[in-house]
Design brief:
- With 238 residues, the chain is of the alpha/beta class.
- It has 2 domains: 82 residues, Transcription Regulator spoIIAA (2-Layer Sandwich), CATH 3.30.750; 143 residues, Glutaconate Coenzyme A-transferase, CATH 3.40.1080.
- 31% of the residues lie in helices and 24% in strands.
- The chain has an 8-stranded mixed β-sheet, sandwiched between helices. It has a 3-stranded mixed β-sheet with strand order 7-6-13, covered by helices on one side.
Length: 238
């Protein structure tokens, strides 16, 4: 995942263990920026190490921009006293017009599941709402509009202690799609990276199966053959 972020990129990170872990892996980068819905301990540590400087930002240069702050007691002391932290309204941090002006903008958000079409469910489990939609779609679309932008959905390949695949043929009928297939760009699990933007549907399925947990790949491929029929058998397999 860290290889998707380059020196000078401006980062947005969602709430949760996976986006937090992604930020924590960026300590070898230089002059990263922050424009996000939230600033947290991981961003604070990057700033303290001189990694998060905002020096290369094309908007709000040198400022760590977020709409909210969430972290430890020491983190709150830092946020409250650091002149480079700028807490701004959501109408600014999530604005499509603003985000499109930030070159090399990289959004990183998590998900419950991703289906073969690239649809993302980030909020529902077995039809039950367990979290809100948040700003993930705003930032995904902002990254798509920004020069050099990239959006990343990062998730573990399984849930329920390895019993359930988070890569699925179709989102369950009772679960909503948080992000549409037209919004998706890059999907990452612990097994690799799937670059989905502009891929036709059968090739999206193949890229996602390649980063699914190995124990589920055979059943996922069988589901893809059933779903795509002749398109799957027509020379797409490698």
């Amino acid at each position: 995942m860290a290889g998707l972020v380059r020196d000078g990129d401006c980062i947005q990170s969602g709430i949760g263990a996976i986006p937090y872990a992604v930020l924590s892996e960026l300590s070898d980068k230089n002059d990263l920026g922050l424009h996000s819905g939230i600033i947290d301990d991981a961003a604070w540590r990057l700033a303290e190490r001189g990694v998060l400087t905002g020096a290369a930002k094309t908007l709000d240069r040198g400022r760590h921009v977020a709409a909210s702050a969430l972290g430890s007691r020491d983190f709150y002391r830092w946020v409250g006293s650091h002149p480079d932290v700028a807490l701004k309204p959501y109408r600014y941090t999530h604005s499509a017009t603003v985000l499109a002006e930030i070159e090399n903008f990289v959004s990183v958000n998590s998900a419950m599941e991703v289906d073969f079409h690239g649809q993302v469910n980030s909020e529902m489990l077995r039809g039950r709402q367990i979290t809100g939609t948040g700003g993930a779609v705003d930032f995904m679309r902002g990254a798509a509009a920004a020069k050099g932008g990239r959006s990343v959905i990062a998730l573990t390949s399984t849930a329920a202690r390895g019993k359930v695949s988070r890569i699925v043929p179709r989102l369950a009928a009772e679960n909503a799609a948080t992000a549409l297939r037209t919004d998706v760009d890059i999907v990452v699990t612990e097994h690799g990276i799937a670059r989905l933007r502009r891929l036709p549907l059968p090739e999206r399925a193949r890229a996602l199966i390649a980063i699914a947990a190995p124990a589920f790949r055979e059943s996922l491929e069988a589901a893809a053959r059933e779903l795509f029929g002749g398109l799957w058998r027509g020379g797409i397999e490698t």
